[in-house]
Design goal:
single chain, alpha+beta, Rossmann fold, 5-stranded antiparallel sheet, 27 helices, 26 strands
Length: about 750
């Protein structure tokens, strides 16, 4: 038995799908290997693959190999010391333990001088390029068409990589892959979050030029306040001071680049400052007021100090030099309550009825011993209980309503929000009452296919509890072209089949019970939800609960002793819920539902907050079912319906608090604020908003006009010609009778 065959057996024993590479220097796998992307070869098939003694070992990455991913440093990356720089970044970001575990688990060198790191994750992603650079002059001379040189990339779901001790004709040079540390049976298992941090570090090493985000260009001489601000000699220091004042942390400096960590994080690196250019911020995290891209200094200042309003930012810079500005520290901002819009007070708490039954008893029992908001504990417990029940209980109310919910806790990060504390409390409770719940968790979801694939691989278990403590990441994914995540989550909530039925791929999932539990900050929710169509499709299937730290508890106690009396009733309720049955409203509940439904029909649903609560009646029905099942009741009674209405009403108030008076269109919201200062011409507004197309401008205007918030008035141009279109706030003086009576006062007709 040659060395490659022996290594292949070790890899197979470690749970990897092994396919040897060809011996022709192509580095492609032998034969028809696609079948081994979904299942590993049998012992007999592996014997057949190695019948002719190939000298190489290859493995298929992804779920078939236990979630295997491989991160590759190209030979040029090693020559340019990128592995050392990655370790340096990891140490600075307090992630050296993660990177060290990966290196110790499996690291090998390649014949071209590169290196491979292997690790296992719950949710493997596809092949991804993480860092590149422009080709050098000598590289372009050798190959003019190859203008971009990859430095770091990965192999993931569906990918293939060659491993040690492959040698001989496997590589064009005849060189060998050499194991440096670890082995197939020692590959490190890391979380999806740790993988994301590793990738973020690798992306910091990208050297491709990037044009930072800035307002759309207009006719000017380069002397606008923003231009002067960007060109200031000390702009790097000024932007750094602004970021630090808003809670960002300086991690370390390397040359002219400062690496930063976003507010609320105690490890990792979230952005670089100065790598692209002086004062240019390159953001890699999706959990801030910034998106994951580069920003000019003026854009950074505008977002931090003026909520993205470039007109207000330009006006705030001093007229004489356009450079001097005042930074408002985050801690000095006046807010009625943590996290909410300045004009919206914290929502009134839910009525006591919401704390009905065993789930409410648990939330009340732990309240004195934790800083978590009782409503956060209650909501988390309801989501977990509903997930554990599965597709047994059902209430028909227009459609089949089950106990799976999509619940989103909205609050500040860390000390002020304590969303994670509520999650930890309920994890402890369910570890005692129903330990099997831990096996239903699915974290790090990156696509709709990840959900349907998981259900397909576990066809005997319909229950899934998706937990996403960085919910903004999901909103970012949903907004990507071609993403199926929103559609799958909507269909999962509705209870319709997931996936597609294909002739050769039976990927349709007809039985499922998917629960979603997410955490997000109000700033990120407003930034990411208002700019996507998720507001009208996905988000109205969510229950929003505003949460915050409710008390200071320097020495929190374990909840175990305080919930002991509720463990057995909770366990029995879950076990009984696994039996399929249909529940109905009792007589008293039917009367209350009739009144509630009539009230709901009369209530207006305005703006984004109204759109995201558009399934209020369905949410109430599901919550009432959960309360009834937790009571082990044979009917949905009045007390269960009142509890559901109390919590759902708080969810509506939470949505209004979190989203404020947003229209659901980011540009319309900015335009509305501009109209508070008076009328503005169509062309002026389009330039100020940084819009490049008339269609985008027309959409923003239509949102305000349809909502009755603005009017579009034609103003006659002097001497005739096309009238100038002017936007006015609804009811503004002169808006009704302007018509053609007014003349052009400034600028050219639009």
């Amino acid at each position: 038995m040659n060395a490659a065959r022996a290594a292949a057996q070790l890899a197979a024993a470690a749970g990897l799908s092994v396919v040897p590479p060809r011996g022709d220097g192509s580095k492609a796998p032998i034969g028809e290997w696609k079948v081994f992307q979904s299942r590993p070869p049998t012992d007999l098939e592996l014997d057949a693959l190695y019948a002719n003694d190939p000298t190489g070992v290859g493995v298929v990455c992804g779920a078939v190999s236990g979630g295997l991913e491989m991160l590759e440093f190209e030979g040029r990356a090693v020559n340019e010391q990128l592995p050392d720089r990655l370790r340096e970044l990891a140490r600075a970001a307090d992630l050296d333990d993660v990177v060290s575990r990966i290196y110790e688990g499996y690291y090998e060198t390649t014949p071209s001088g590169g290196g491979h790191l292997m690790y296992l994750v719950p949710t493997p992603l596809g092949n991804t390029k993480l860092a590149s650079r422009p080709a050098t002059e000598s590289e372009l001379a050798a190959n003019p068409a190859d203008k971009v040189k990859v430095l770091i990339e990965t192999r993931g779901e569906g990918g293939y990589c060659i491993t040690a001790p492959s040698s001989g004709a496997v590589h064009p040079t005849g060189g060998a892959w050499t194991l440096v540390s670890g082995g197939f049976d020692r590959i490190a298992a890391i979380t999806d979050a740790e993988r994301d941090e590793l990738w973020r570090l690798a992306r910091l090493l990208d050297a491709m030029p990037e044009k930072p985000t800035q307002p759309a260009p207009t006719d000017h001489d380069g002397n606008r306040p923003g231009d002067r601000f960007n060109a200031a000699p000390d702009v790097q220091e000024r932007v750094l001071a602004a970021l630090l004042a808003h809670g960002w942390t300086r991690v370390f400096r390397r040359g002219d680049t400062v690496f930063l960590r976003r507010p609320g994080k105690d490890r990792s690196i979230s952005a670089s400052l100065g790598h692209v250019g002086p004062g240019v911020l390159r953001v890699f995290s999706t959990s801030t007021e910034f998106e994951a891209k580069a920003y000019t200094p003026f854009s950074v200042y505008t977002i931090l100090e003026h909520g993205g309003d470039f007109v207000a930012a330009a006006a705030a810079l001093t007229a004489d030099d356009g450079v001097t500005f005042t930074v408002t520290p985050a801690t000095a901002k006046v807010m009625p309550e943590p996290g909410g819009p300045e004009s919206t007070p914290w929502p009134d708490p839910p009525a006591d009825a919401a704390y009905h039954g065993v789930l409410g008893d648990i939330a009340r029992a732990v309240a004195p011993y934790t800083e978590a908001d009782p409503v956060a504990v209650l909501g988390t417990g309801i989501a977990m209980f509903g997930a554990a029940c599965g597709d047994g209980p059902m209430l028909y109310q227009g459609s089949r309503q089950r106990t799976n919910l999509s619940l989103l806790l909205v609050g500040e990060t860390g000390f002020r929000g304590r969303k994670g504390t509520a999650l930890d409390v309920e994890r402890g409770v369910f570890a005692l009452a129903y330990p099997d719940l831990a096996g239903l968790w699915l974290v790090g979801v990156a696509s709709g296919e990840a959900i349907t694939g998981h259900l397909g691989r576990h066809e005997l278990e319909e229950r899934v509890l998706i937990v996403e403590t960085e919910f903004g990441r999901l909103l970012t994914i949903m907004n990507r072209e071609g993403s199926t995540l929103s559609a799958v989550l909507r269909n999962a909530w509705d209870g319709v089949p997931l996936g597609h039925a294909r002739a050769r791929d039976e990927s349709l999932v007809t039985r499922h019970h998917v629960t979603l539990l997410g955490h997000i900050t109000p700033v990120e929710l407003r930034a990411k939800l208002t700019d996507t169509d998720a507001a009208n499709g996905f988000a109205n299937r969510l229950l929003f609960l505003a949460v915050r730290r409710t008390r200071l508890v320097p020495f929190p106690a374990s909840p175990d002793e305080h919930v002991r009396e509720f463990i057995e009733p909770l366990h029995r309720a879950i076990v009984e819920a696994r039996v399929p049955r249909e529940l109905f409203f009792d007589v008293a509940a039917r009367g209350r539902w009739t009144d509630f439904y009539a009230e709901l029909a009369r209530a207006p649903r305005l703006g984004l907050a109204g759109a995201v609560t558009g399934r209020h009646e369905a949410q109430v029905a599901r919550l009432a079912l959960v309360y009834a099942v937790a009571d082990r009741s044979t009917e949905v009674g009045l007390v269960h319906l009142e509890a559901a209405i109390a919590l759902a009403d708080y969810a509506r108030r939470s949505a209004t608090w979190a989203l404020g008076d947003s229209t659901g269109n980011r540009h319309a919201d900015v335009l509305r604020r501009m109209l508070d200062d008076g009328e503005i011409g169509w062309k002026e507004a389009k330039i100020a908003l940084g819009l490049r197309t008339a269609a985008d401008m027309a959409e923003a205007v239509a949102v305000l006009v349809d909502a009755g918030l603005a009017e579009l008035v034609p103003i006659a141009a002097p001497g005739g010609g096309r009238p100038r279109r002017v936007l006015m706030a609804k009811g503004a003086k002169g808006a009704k009778d302007a018509g053609g009576a007014r003349t052009e006062e400034r600028g050219n007709p639009a």
